Structures are given as structure tokens and as C-alpha cells.
Amino acid sequence: MADETVDENDPVVVTKIEYKGTKVSVLEDVYEPAEDTFLMADCAVKEFSDYEKNSGNARHAEQFELDDPFSALEVGCGSGFVSAFLLNHFSDLDLIAVDINPNAVKCAQMNGVRAFESDMFDIFEKSRHLRSIDTPIEDVSPSKPPLGFDLILFNPPYLPTSEDEKVSGMLNYAFDGGVTGRDSIDRFLKEVGDYLKSDGFFLLLISSITGLDETVTEMKKNGFSAEVVGTKKCSFEELIVLKGKRL
């Protein structure tokens, strides 16, 4: 029997997680699915199911071919659990996931998610630029759907973090929200409109630590309504999922 060799550079699985029938493996330096992940996953399935039912007939009648799939993007996918959970419920969903942490991208891919390394939406801007100058790019490079995504998900790093509170390694990306905890949230709200379909929606998970009123104000400032679609008490904070649609 041949000896199995292990490359020291191969990612190491540190744990496996299962929730409501969806199983993922989690690699080193990747955020382990927890209460916030499961809350987002449950909200995503419920809200997308409602959206699919309510907009399906209209979107096909007005501007789509019957076989055009609904599209979704998860920003900051981590292990890929939320995306995998969605795909288990909506197998025809055209879903792309991105994360700034390359280990998270490897992890999500290992868990069956079409994931790419990107700082938020940067990968789509790069792809758009290359296409605009007719530069050959790989077929696997993701691009924004012509009319935007139906659903965009973001469970951001929301903990207020000073320099001495940073976590070592790439895992810091999952926790570090800047001094106020709002760095990634505010950037997301400024940029998300460029990638969202006119009748689409996004789900944003925040903590009571981050500030619900401040986030709602920022959403409205950027042209979005704000609806609380899920909450969960969790030790010292309350987790909140906000749904945003164009005003």
C-alpha cells in the first residue's frame, strides 16, 4: 500500500460544522460558523424564498428568458456556510461568494461554493476593466450580472477594534471593524447599490454594539429602506439582520 504524503502547505481542517442538514469543514484562520452565521442563513432562505415567489413571474415577463437563474452574491463568505445553506435550498441559484482571506476562499471552495478572493466588490471592478479593454481573462473570472444581483449578503466584521485588540493572522479580517466597528459596514452601504438589481435586496448582519439607529440612518442616506427581518440575543449583544431595498 502506497504511503500517503501530506503537503505542509495544505490547509488543515480544524473543525466540522452541521446545521439543519448543511455540513461544512472549517480550515485554519477561517471564521467558524456560529450564531450570527446561522441567523443569516435562516433569514437568507426565508427572504429569498419570498422574493422568488413574488418577483418570479414579473421578472420573466418583463426582461428575462424563462431559464435565466436568480443570482446571489455573498460578501465575506468565510467558510462558505451561508452560501452552501442557500444552495441546498435553491439548487438553481447562480451564486458567487468572495472573501478577502485566501484561506476562507479555499475553505468555501472545498465546501462546494464558487468563491473568489476579493476585497469586497473589487474583483468585479477588475473584471469589468479588463473586459472593457478587450484583455483576455480566464473564463472563471466572475462578473456582475448585466442587471445586478437579486440578492447580496454581508455578515461583516462589526466589533470595535483598537490596535491592541487585533487578532493575529488572517482571522483578524473576520472580527476587525475598525475603531467604531463600522468600517466595512459603511463601505458596503456606499458601494452595494452598484451591484444590486433595481428590484433586488441585500441582507446585512449587525450587532447592537454596532448601533442599529446609526446603520438605519446610513442605509437611508445611501438610498435604501431598512427592515429588521431577524434578531437573536447572544450573551452581551443582540444580533440583527437588516433587509435593504432601494427607496
TrEMBL record:
An example Gene Ontology molecular-function term: peptide chain release factor N(5)-glutamine methyltransferase activity
GO biological process: methylation
Assigned protein family: Belongs to the eukaryotic/archaeal PrmC-related family.
Keywords annotated in UniProt: Methyltransferase, S-adenosyl-L-methionine, Transferase
Gene: prmC
Annotated SUPFAM superfamilies: S-adenosyl-L-methionine-dependent methyltransferases (SSF53335)
Domain Methyltransferase small: 65-162
EC code(s) of this entry: 2.1.1.297
Identification of the protein by name: Release factor glutamine methyltransferase
